[in-house]
Amino acid sequence: MVLSGLIYQTWVGGFDGLLGGLLGMTTGLACLLPLYAVGGMGAGDVKLMAGIGAWIGWQDTFYSFCVSVVVGAIMAVIMVAYRGAWKKHYENFLKILSEWSVIRDPYELSKIAAERKPTMFLLPYGIPICIGTIGYFVYTGMM
After folding, report:
1. Could you give the CA distance from residue 86 to residue 68 in angstroms, rounded to a whole number?
2. What is the tally of structural domains in the chain?
3. Three-class secondary structure of residue 141 per DSSP
4. Average pLDDT for consecutive 10-residue bins of the chain (143 residues)?
5. In which domain, by residue range, is 71 found?
6. How far is 2 from 64, CA to CA, in rounded Å?
């Protein structure tokens, strides 16, 4: 997806298009790479956001990411409500927040997240990314 986006941007905008695609890809990476680094997100989600960035440029990628965050939060709340596991997930949230404020080493945070992952109810974040991006496209008239 990244490669095809960069090719498209180059075809349409020449060298400036390529730079715009690279900047969009970098923006997509920058939005999710920190969460991936500490074990809070999968590599596929990061690559998806980078691919979107390569196609649509940095500004639309950032706004698409922001909408995706809202969609992801709504989906997470619905998932927790459906399971009725408010206390468990709130305690996990506080524990993770505490770890992030105390532990500064991303490798250590990643290791802790990997140990905790089998006990958690996970949201495949590619779904909110797709819904949020399409919603952003519809809202802005891009689609």
Report:
1. 22
2. 1
3. coil
4. 97 96 98 86 93 97 97 92 87 84 84 81 90 96 90
5. 2-140
6. 16
As a whole number of angstroms, the longest Cα–Cα distance in the chain is: 53
Rounded to an integer, what distance in angstroms lies between the CA atom of residue 112 and that of residue 133?
31
Phi, psi (rounded to 5 degrees) for 41: -160, 150
Q: At what angle do helices 86-102 and 106-116 cross, to 10 degrees?
A: 160
Ranges of beta strands (E only) in the chain are none
Length of the chain: 143
Task: Name the nearest CA neighbour of 64 among 129, 119, 127, 15.
Answer: 129
Buried b (16+ CB within 10 A) or exposed e, 104-127: eeeeebeebbeeeeeeeeebebbe
CA angle 90, 75, 83 (to 5 degrees): 55
